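Exercise 7. Given the encoded structure of a 194-residue chain, write a plausible sequence.
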């Protein structure tokens, strides 16, 4: 049993060195809304990016409107509409062994649903995190706690899985973005209405 690695922004960890033989993981993300009694619908999405950092098509963009990748290697466990409760608010499963060889990165983004219409932004959040867990034995391999969310904006790029040959690394990113999910997907090369 190995201990969880608590990560800082920009830090990288080799998941396959930490857990030899690793094939299945899940990314769990959670957050709290600062205002008592308030709710916010954040959506955890996965962008499966090629060597050029682009989405090859809609089948590589996993979110509440497309719950599984075309290849079946990445799937959302569902949409939590309020963020209520402790632990992971949303989860994305990744079968590392079946991710197509052309996919180099899997980027995890939390985005506020209809942020502009609802007048909500990241500044309304607290205690955000992303963690990578070995799905076979529930061992938490890495966790990135984002303690200070000073940014405004509608989306938060939490972290990414990066392929290096046969190995997979996790990189903590923690960067806010003004755009909502559809705008981010467009930036990564896909025209969508999210």
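Solution.
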């Amino acid at each position: 049993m190995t201990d969880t690695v608590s990560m800082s922004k920009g830090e990288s960890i080799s998941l396959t060195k930490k857990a030899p033989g690793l094939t299945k993981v899940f990314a769990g993300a959670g957050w709290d809304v600062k205002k008592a009694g308030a709710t916010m619908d954040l959506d955890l999405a996965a962008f499966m990016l090629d060597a050029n950092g682009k989405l090859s098509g809609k089948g590589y963009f996993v979110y509440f409107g497309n719950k599984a990748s075309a290849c079946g290697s990445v799937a959302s466990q569902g949409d939590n509409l309020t963020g209520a409760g402790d632990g992971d608010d949303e989860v994305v499963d990744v079968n590392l062994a079946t991710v197509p060889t052309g996919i180099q990165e899997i980027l995890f983004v939390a985005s506020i649903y209809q942020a502009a219409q609802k007048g909500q932004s990241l500044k309304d959040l607290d205690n955000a995190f992303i963690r990578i867990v070995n799905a076979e034995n529930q061992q938490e391999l890495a966790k990135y706690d984002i303690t200070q969310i000073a940014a405004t904006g509608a989306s938060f790029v939490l972290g990414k899985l990066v392929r290096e040959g046969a190995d997979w690394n996790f990189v903590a990113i923690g960067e806010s973005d003004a755009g909502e999910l559809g705008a981010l997907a467009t930036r990564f090369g896909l025209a969508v209405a999210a």
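Remark. Residues 181-187 form the longest helix (7 residues). Students should compare their own answers with the one above.
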